[in-house]
Automatic annotation (TrEMBL):
PANTHER family: RNA POLYMERASE ECF-TYPE SIGMA FACTO, RNA POLYMERASE SIGMA FACTOR HI_1459-RELATED
InterPro entries the record matches: RNA_pol_sigma-70-like (IPR039425), RNA_pol_sigma-70_dom (IPR014284), RNA_pol_sigma70_r2 (IPR007627), RNA_pol_sigma70_r4_t2 (IPR013249), RNA_pol_sigma_r2 (IPR013325), RNA_pol_sigma_r3/r4-like (IPR013324), WH-like_DNA-bd_sf (IPR036388)
Ranges for domain RNA polymerase sigma factor 70 region 4 type: 97-148
Biological process according to GO: DNA-templated transcription initiation
Family: Belongs to the sigma-70 factor family. ECF subfamily.
Name of the featured protein: Sigma-70 family RNA polymerase sigma factor
Pfam families, sorted: Sigma70_r2, Sigma70_r4_2
Gene Ontology molecular functions: DNA binding; sigma factor activity
Organism field: Marseilla massiliensis
Record-linked NCBIfam families: sigma70-ECF (TIGR02937)
Superkingdom in the source lineage: Bacteria
Listed SUPFAM superfamilies: Sigma2 domain of RNA polymerase sigma factors, Sigma3 and sigma4 domains of RNA polymerase sigma factors
High-level lineage: Bacteria, Pseudomonadati, Bacteroidota, Bacteroidia, Bacteroidales
Assigned keywords, A-Z: DNA-binding, Sigma factor, Transcription, Transcription regulation
């Protein structure tokens, strides 16, 4: 594709890409940035592009927006949080103790993966590297552990 053709197509598909990016990101400025990044990426591939470019551009915008959303992590400084006092009769403390007892009954692999993910806050790839499992296996183990904890927790509530 010649650069002039790309410029014309980019002008025509830009509003559509902006709309899609706004739908994902919810912010006009972030959407503008996403579309600009995708158009720059497409410009770098202008020699190898073929018509129609719009489907490829849509996929690139979607993937870029999803990546941006995944990277947005809410972080709270420890200094900003208020210390919580937990009393012996606190329902939160009781629920925490109940959950920890349920987790202790799980198989070792499920315990490790569940604790690394939810208590230590590690990502799936970090857990996979640490445990030696493949990332898909870590996801499967975590899913099974969550289902087992949920099942045991519901059974305990029904017994009360």
């Amino acid at each position: 594709m010649v650069p002039e053709d790309f410029e014309r197509e980019a002008e025509l598909m830009r509003p559509m890409l902006l709309s899609a990016a706004r739908g994902y990101l919810g912010n006009a400025d972030d959407a503008e940035d996403a579309v600009q990044e995708v158009l720059v990426k497409l410009w770098s591939m202008v020699d190898t592009l073929r018509r129609p470019v719009a489907p490829l551009a849509k996929v690139l915008v979607r993937n870029f927006c999803i990546d941006r959303l995944r990277r947005r992590r809410v972080t709270v400084s420890v200094d900003e949080t208020e210390p919580q006092t937990i009393t012996a009769d606190s329902t939160d403390n009781d629920m925490f103790e109940r959950m920890m007892k349920i987790i202790d009954t799980l198989p070792a692999a499920q315990q490790v993966v569940l604790r690394l993910r939810h208590i230590d806050g590690m990502d799936m790839d970090e857990i996979a590297k640490l445990t030696g499992y493949k990332e898909a296996n870590v996801r499967k183990i975590l899913s099974r552990a969550r289902m087992a904890v949920r099942k045991h927790y519901i059974e305990e509530l029904d017994d009360e």
